[in-house]
């Protein structure tokens, strides 16, 4: 096409190359406003967050002359699959507008808005609400409970929600000493206060007292639970750089997942977007820019690739509403029973079930559960709050989906009641059961409190917890710890809410305990013939003892006798 000359203006030199932009990272510093084109879908890039200023555009125009004009019509696709730039807009004549004093000002014509700008405008406020979390941790030393370990630092992600609050992962601020937050594009770190930590759901809530932190930022809006194959975008500050990172994928699976940090099972989303160290606490957005989850863990296995897990909005809203309702985090309740599937037809016949009845059989009931005096072993749970339970323990979830009935329990709050229908001796009974949190004989976590211990005659007594086992035997404690402790960890139930499993963790060598140096992690059963309930009761019995000797009965028929 020949060049077109306009009267009174010099012709523009033809451009040597044509700029293209794919859907990934593209720097805005070397492109003019007309260099950006409409993306074919709503995938956005972390770098495309600003429009070049007029000065920058003028500078680029001087360095990179505009390309030659093409004919009208839709833009062509290049051979590599990138969308070629649309025709650059001709330099329209400035609009003449009279001024009040008779002078004339030249006003440039309005610039067209590309499609990517509208996409960015929709997602940008949500991305600006994503913050970087800096935390200094000081973890207790469970093996030497009178001291702490060396402090260490970590960085993770978080995002701002309504009410001047910030959400992140619980493991991101575990054993925190100091927490700071930094907004996107800012060079200032703001001191944060931890409002609540939900260890079971791996969510923590923070706030910042400095009002400057909240200026110019809109809180993230939550969306509904996504469907399978819905697009999700994870935003955060993972390893590999200091600036914000964006990864995208789809929802691969929705089911009850094992939450590693909380040692519990709650609803979760599996996605194929990359979730790396530092992504923890970052939001997962849908294509509307609404938050549908919080990134919190990933699967690292030689046979698996790009398997990440997201805390969905029902769990997030449960945590937020629990805090707003009670002023603190109270946890997720449980039914307090161990159950067995009823898929075997002979088993169903033996339990007196009819052909149209389905349910699960109760094996054991937690002695500390409120329903322990109502339900009995061998009862068959037919329904929970009016929802029928199948023989495999699942309930209808959404169209074409089923989920474990523990999901119905987790939707409740501590202290709520639920209607449970059971089959007992071929009779249908209904009970209103009050739900409570789980009391484990060996707790999975200590809720941030330092470990308790008691020392007498060089013997160090402490309560067994999962962090203690991990400190003593490493991350493979389930294989390396003593069989007796593992059996109690996996199968034993607490008989009362204040019961603890006590052990002599070690013996500090002294003249009074000669011959007992080899006692390590052995359970304490009784003191002077009286059963030991917890560490506090042991300390009281020792302090109030007037006998000449102190006698401790240990596991394996082992005894310890020391003088006063």
Automatic annotation (TrEMBL):
Residues 344-435 form the PDZ domain. Pfam families: PDZ_2, PDZ_3, Trypsin_2. Residues 54-68 have a biased composition (Low complexity). One of its GO terms (molecular function) is serine-type endopeptidase activity. GO terms for biological process: proteolysis; regulation of DNA-templated transcription. Residues 76-98 have a biased composition (Basic and acidic residues). One of its GO terms (cellular component) is nucleus. Keywords: Hydrolase, Nucleus, Protease, Serine protease. InterPro entries: DEGP_PDZ, DEGP_PDZ_sf, HMGI/Y_DNA-bd_CS, PDZ, PDZ_sf, Peptidase_S1_PA, Peptidase_S1_PA_chymotrypsin, Peptidase_S1C. Residues 442-560 form the Protease Do-like PDZ domain. Residues 1-22, 51-102 are annotated as: Disordered. Residues 1-12 have a biased composition (Basic residues). SUPFAM superfamilies: PDZ domain-like, Trypsin-like serine proteases. It is found in: Nucleus. The keyword Cytoplasm does not apply. Belongs to the peptidase S1C family. PANTHER family: PROTEASE DO-LIKE 9, PTHR45980. This is Protease Do-like PDZ domain-containing protein. It comes from Gossypium barbadense (Sea Island cotton).
